[in-house]
Amino acid sequence: MDYKNFVGGHWLETPDGVPNINPSDVSDILGYAANADAAQLDQAIDAAHQAAPGWAASTPQQRFDVLDFVGTELLARKAELGRLLSREEGKTLPEGVGEVARAGQIFKFFAGEALRLAGERLASVRPGIDVDVTRSAIGVVGLITPWNFPIAIPAWKIAPALCYGNTVVLKPAELVPGSAHALTEILSRSGLPDGVVNLVMGRGSHIGPQLVESAKVNAISFTGSVPTGRGIAAACGRHLKKVQLEMGGKNPMVVLDDADLDVAVAACLNGAFFSTGQRCTASSRLIVTEAIHDRFVAALTGAMTALNVGNALEDGVQMGPVVDERQLQRNLDYVDIAAKEGGRVLGGERLNRETEGFYMAPALVSETDNGMRINREEVFGPVASVIRVKDYEEALHTANDTEFGLSAGICTTSLKHASDFKARAQAGMVMVNLPTAGVDYHVPFGGTKGSSFGSREQGRYAAEFYTTVKTAYTLP
After folding, report:
1. Residue ranges of the chain that CATH labels 3.40.605.10
2. Angle at Cα 225 formed by Cα 379 and Cα 330, nearest 5°?
3. Cα 248 to Cα 270: distance, rounded to the nearest angstrom
4. Could you read off the pLDDT tens digit of each residue along the chain, which spans 476 residues?
5. What region holds the Aldehyde dehydrogenase domain (predicted)?
6. How far does CA 80 lie from the centroid of its chain?
7. Over the range 227-238, which residues count as b (16 or more CB within 10 Å of their CB) and which as e?
8. Rounded Cα gap, residues 359 and 362, in angstroms
9. Alpha carbon of residue 171 to chain centroid
10. Which CATH architecture has domain 2-247+442-474?
């Protein structure tokens, strides 16, 4: 299949297609993705710019109808599209189907929000004057999305953008063109005017800077690596352009002596290794107090080694392959670094399966300290390290001792410690007796420190980024 770009209401080809490779079976080529050049990106930006005034003036009913249509179709086709997603990205089939369902729920949520667009009417401090506070669309929004959630992250950026009257240029990750193409194809039939949504696939290093620098793009929402995010922030700052960044994490999970061991192991197994650890909210630092440490490591080791690693589309597989060869080699390098630093590594080797793919055994690195590279740098794979601490205060200090601040968790039966951790953990999201990964679609998503910049994504808080506030005074 050819995955074409969608510009101004039309599907456009490019001369050279990029193969979409199944990480579970590298002989399986799903299709070939368009590879846009500068001229095609400019065409998409122009289309979004021309469509912006008309869509900003659309009615709440028009926006609801579009968003509800997309959400309904995603939910109806979740099995089909989930299989496509798992085939191109490598997460297990239940995870792929679940992600498509979440994308559908996101569109449904913002369909409802489109009917709840509201402002405020206030009395002025001056007699006889009325004050109206309203929200307006910001215009053209450039969306740059990663490969690890190839339909959910585009959904949670596109849906609020359209809900609040903006037009969109979507630049998805090169590794997962099929999911972005499928979502755009549904949007193309939703009743949107030409140019409101545009899909431009191509190498980020080639067209990403052009999208960020364009004077016709009013805002950028980016999810990806910290270095790229910092570069985007600097560029947007030069142009006084609105920017929203979701970047890396080195998320701690604290396990206290009083924790329910089964609950702690289940939370850490899920947070560290499900979705092949390829989540920015993954539990990568397991901070465990002394009295439970050895029992916890033994129990988690048993649960980890029992995981069924294999082809993402096969029944019973609990962990699929790494997304590509480059990421796999990065993971293996970090496991090697951890061992050389003195960590005790269990697992983490490359695996062979019936089909050639990017398979890796989950890795647990014990006997580490928080100064090691394995605990300072994001790996973005099925690799978790264990840090032994003496008590809750040391655990909290260690959890906060990182440049990141996306998600943090604690396993404890102590209400005192749970309440204190929720208040003092330096993270945008805190979990108690739950995995650090796994969030709802109707509440804010985002972090602190080096993990996030700008206003929150998802839920009603998305309005902060996708709108601008206007205050109007009237003397009747």
Report:
1. 2-247+442-474
2. 30
3. 18
4. 889 999 999 999 877 889 999 999 999 999 999 999 999 999 999 999 999 999 999 999 999 999 999 999 999 999 999 999 999 999 999 999 999 999 999 999 999 999 999 999 999 999 999 999 999 999 999 999 999 999 999 999 999 999 999 999 999 999 999 999 999 999 999 999 999 999 999 988 889 999 999 999 999 999 999 999 999 999 999 999 999 999 999 999 999 999 999 999 999 999 999 999 999 999 999 999 999 999 999 999 999 999 999 999 999 999 999 999 999 999 999 999 999 999 999 999 999 999 999 999 999 999 999 999 999 999 999 999 999 999 999 999 999 999 999 999 999 999 999 999 999 999 999 999 999 999 999 999 999 999 999 999 999 999 999 999 999 999 98
5. 17-471
6. 22
7. ebbeebbebbee
8. 10
9. 14
10. 3-Layer(aba) Sandwich (3.40)
Residues 130 and 16: their CA atoms lie apart, in Å, by 59
Of residues 375, 372, 367, 333, the one with CA closest to residue 350 = 333
Write out the catalytic residue numbers: 246
Dihedral (CA of 22, 24, 26, 28) sign: negative
Beta bridge partners of 346: 364
What φ, ψ does residue 28 adopt, rounded to 5°? -95, 105
The tokens 């559908």 sit on which residue?
A: 104
Which class in CATH covers the domain with range 251-432?
alpha beta
Question: Which three-class secondary structure string do you get for the chain?
Answer: CEECEEECCEEECCCCCEEEEECCEEEEEEEEECCCCHHHHHHHHHHHHHHHHHHHCCCHHHHHHHHHHHHHHHHHCHHHHHHHHHHHHCCCHHHHHHHHHHHHHHHHHHHHHHCCCCCEEEECCCCCCEEEEEEEECCEEEEECCCCCCCHHHHHHHHHHHHCCCEEEEECCCCCHHHHHHHHHHHHCCCCCCCCEEECCCCHHHHHHHHHHCCCCCEEEEECCHHHHHHHHHHHHHCCCEEEEECCCCEEEEECCCCCHHHHHHHHHHHHHHHHHCCCCCEEEEEEEHHHHHHHHHHHHHHHHCCCECCCCCCCCCECCCCCHHHHHHHHHHHHHHHHCCCEEEECCECCCCCCCCCECCEEEEEECCCCHHHHCCCCCCEEEEEEECCHHHHHHHHHCCCCCCEEEEECCCHHHHHHHHHHCCCCEEEECCCCCCCCCCCCECCCHHHEECCCECCHHHHHHHEEEEEEEECC
Nearest to 475 by CA among 134, 130, 132: 130
Q: Say whether pTM exceeds 0.90.
A: yes
For the chain, give every residue range classified as CATH 3.40.309.10.
Answer: 251-432
Q: What is the length of the chain? A: 476
